[in-house]
Amino acid sequence: MLTRHTNRAALAALVICHCAGMLDMVALPVWIGVLVERYGFSSQQAGGLVTLFMVGAFLASLVLAPRFNNLNQRWIATAGFGMGSCAFLAAGTQETFPVLAILHLIAGLGAGVALSMAHGTMGRTANPHKMFAISFGALGFLAIILLAALPQLIIAFGASVLFLVFGGIMLVATCAAALLFRNPPRVDEQLKKPFNRATWLTIFGIGIMTFNQSMVFAFVEVIGKTRGFEAGAVLTVLIALGLINFLVPAPLSTFLQSRVSAPLMTQIGPVIQAVLALGVTTATVMPIWGPSAAFFVTTQIFTHTFVFGLLSRLDPTGRATAATPAMALIGAALGPFAGGVLAQNFGFEALGLAAVFVGLTSAACFTLARASARSLQPAPAL
After folding, report:
1. Which positions ≥6 away from 370 have C-beta within 8 Å?
2. Residue boundaries of the structural domains of the chain
3. What's the predicted TM-score (pTM) here?
4. Which CATH superfamily is domain 12-183+195-376 in?
C-alpha cells in the first residue's frame, strides 16, 4: 500500500507553490492587457510572450515528471521558484521584446520545474482531489487580490509593477519550498508501470480543455473593452471572477467528490466551457457577457479537480499528477497565441466557434477515457 504524505506544514507549502506556479491562470487578462496597452505590443506579440512562459513551464514539466520519484522534490522546487523570481524581477527593468521573450522563457522553465514537484507531491497526499480543490480555492483568493490591486498599482507606478509582483510571489514560494516542503515517501519499483490508455486520454482531454480556456480567457479584458463596456465594469467582472473561483469550485468539488461520478464530471465540463466561451466572444450586452466571463475559469478549475483525483488513482506513483503542468500548459502555451491570431485576423466570433469545436474534442477524449477505464476493471465472478 502506498504511504500518503500528510504533514500540515508541507501541505501549506504545496498550496503556496500551486498559487505561485499557476499565476498565469488568474493573471492572464491583466498580463496580456499590460503588454498590449502599456508596452505597445500587438495581440500576437503579447500572446507570444505569455506563450513563451508557458512553453518553458511545459518543457520543464515534460522532462521532470517521468523522473519525479527519483528526484529531491524539495530542493528542485526551491531552485525552480528562485529562478522564476529572478527572471520576473529582471523583466521589471526591461521593455524590449527580445529581452522580455528570453526572460519569460526562463521564468516559465523555473515555474514548471517547481510546479511539477508540487503537483506530484499533491498526488501522493491522503486525498489528492481535496488537496487540489483547496489549492485552487487559495488561487482564487490570490486572484481577487491580484485582479483588484494590479490595475491600480500599474496606473500608479507603471507597467513594470506587473513583473515585480510576479517576482515577489515566486520569491515567497521559494522560501515556502525551502522551509516547509517535505518529500513524499519513495515508491516501490513495481508500481512504476507505463501509463494505460485511460490515463493518456485523460491527459489529452485536460490539455485540450486548458488550451480552450487560455485561448479565450487571455482576451477577456480586450474583448470587454472592444464591446464598449466601461473599464470599471470589466474590472468588476474580473474581480467577480476571482470571488467565484475562490467561493465556488473548491467547496463544490469537495462536496460532490463522493456523490457523483468523476468521469461524468470530466465529460460535462468541456461542454459547459464551450457554451460560456460563446457568451464571452459573441455577447454584446453586459447581462450575458459578464456572467459568461465570470464563470468561465470556474468550469476549468472544477473539471480539473476531478481530473487530478482520477489521475492520482490511475497512477498512484505521482508521475501523472507531476505532469499536470505539462498536460495543462501545452494547451495554455498555444492558447494565447492561437487566440491572438484568430482575434486579429478573423474577429472574436471566430474565436468562439473555435472554442466550441475544441470543447467537443476535449469531451470526446474524456468519454473515450471513461470507456477505456471500464474495460480495465476485472470482470465479475460467475
Report:
1. 198, 263, 264, 266, 267
2. 12-183+195-376
3. 0.83
4. MFS general substrate transporter like domains (1.20.1250.20)
∠ at Cα 264 (253, 213), nearest 5°?
65
The burial class, CB within 10 Å (0-12 / 13-18 / 19+), for 291 is middle
Is the Cβ–Cβ distance between 248 and 300 less than 8 Å?
Answer: no
Reported as a single tens digit per residue, the pLDDT across 269-315 is 999 999 999 999 988 889 999 999 999 988 998 999 999 999 988 88
Nearest to 22 by CA among 155, 178, 213, 225: 213
If one counts every other C-beta atom within 10 angstroms of the C-beta of residue 8, the result is 8
Cell numbers at residue 213, please? 480556456
